[in-house]
Amino acid sequence: MLYSFFTMFLSRKANEGLLALSQEDAMPISLRQLAYVSGLGFGFMSGAFSVVNILADSVGPGAVGIHGDSQHYFISSAFMTMAVILLHMFWGVVFFDSCEKKRWWSVAVVVLSHLLVSCLTFLNPQYEGSLIPAYVIMFLMGSWAFSCAGGSLRNLKLCLTCKDKDFLLANHRPR
Fold this sequence. Notes:
The protein contains six helices and no strands. It has helices at residues 2-21, 31-59, 73-101, 104-120, 127-148, 153-160.
């Protein structure tokens, strides 16, 4: 999370410098875009390391499920990896928005929820003890990130029913 803070701070300074040198009146990348891309990048890297560790476990020595261990190691690890990838994206959006608006309590919530989800893996091999709370936190953080990004229930309803005229696919014309 400390790295996210420095990334946001450095990118803000870089955008201000680029704006001063540029002929354009707008910044080349918005803070919301940077938060999304940064969070998704952190999530993919976390997922890649998680998958590599799981593949290393599958090679051996030994086999998962012997001596009374759970047979659901690989599928539960896949679901936990998916949750952590999405959580990193949501944490990035909420973290950047909180830093921009100087809501330090929100930054603390992001850091503490990150710590909580990381510590939930200590509950394995009781996978329901780690997966269910991780997915509850993912749903809550996803809703919060959607709100931080400017989303609302009205926008979601218009998008899902395809009634929004400003939606990209609604105005698509074949070439």
